[in-house]
Design brief:
heterodimer; A: 112 residues; mainly beta; six-stranded mixed sheet; 0% helix; globular; B: 114 residues; seven-stranded mixed sheet
């Protein structure tokens, strides 16, 4: 069965430090992977996607994600965290019929 | 214009009321979606419209009735809702319904059913 796991409910990072939000997936075939961010009381915003090609994907707001086929992971990263990065982050994978399977979400807290 | 606009932002309704949620986009997108999201949970797909035709209905109860009057508008008609239907209702759009497509989300309607 297709699935996405975000193993951490919450990640705490000090401002200026690098951050990583983890995502692993289980799909048959080639995965189409996405990261979305949700700020408080807002809808979701697209950050980046992996379809094919370079394993390092760059996205909005300085975020990037690394696709690792052998580890079936698609971790979200940023070299230097900002307080404004504090939000809820969702990893998702496309499966048949163009529908997204979403991870449970990870709350990212950046402390000044 | 890269926005998806949803109205109203907040809605409180009784279980016998009829109300409608509205969604509008002017990006020329031909796929539009309704999602339901409980607090701090991932969104759950309800309906997908592709080229103004209902493409996917995720076994949603009939008290939720979607409508796509034209390529820019999407409505969700609500009738006889239950308290457990209280949630954030998100509209989204994409260029087409396809595996590569990123979704553009509105800010949502926070619905409370009393």
């Amino acid at each position: 069965a297709q699935s996405v796991a975000q193993p951490e409910d919450q990640v705490n990072v000090a401002e200026g430090n690098p951050l990583t939000v983890k995502c692993t997936y289980s799909v048959s075939g080639n995965p189409y992977l996405f990261w979305y961010v949700q700020y408080p009381n807002r809808g979701l915003q697209f950050l980046l996607k992996y379809i094919t090609g370079d394993n390092l994907v760059k996205g909005s707001y300085g975020f990037e994600a690394e696709f690792n086929k052998s580890q079936t992971s698609f971790h979200l990263k940023k070299p230097s965290a900002l307080v404004s990065d504090s939000a809820l982050y969702f990893c998702a994978v496309i499966y048949s019929n163009y529908q997204l399977i979403w991870g449970a979400g990870t709350k990212l807290i950046i402390k000044p | 214009d890269t926005e998806v606009t949803q109205t109203p932002k907040h809605l409180v309704m009784g279980m016998t009321n009829k109300k409608s949620l509205k969604c509008e986009q002017h990006m020329g997108h031909r796929a539009m979606y309704w999602y339901k999201q409980k607090a701090k949970k991932p969104p759950e797909l309800m309906f997908v419209y592709s080229y103004e035709k209902l493409s996917i209905n995720e076994s949603v109860p009939s008290r939720f009735s979607p409508e796509c009057p034209n390529s820019s508008l999407l409505n969700l008609h609500l009738h006889a809702l239950q308290p457990e239907d209280s949630a954030l209702y998100l509209c989204a759009s994409s260029q087409i319904k396809g595996n590569n497509e990123k979704l553009f989300f509105g800010s949502g309607t926070q619905l409370s059913v009393l």
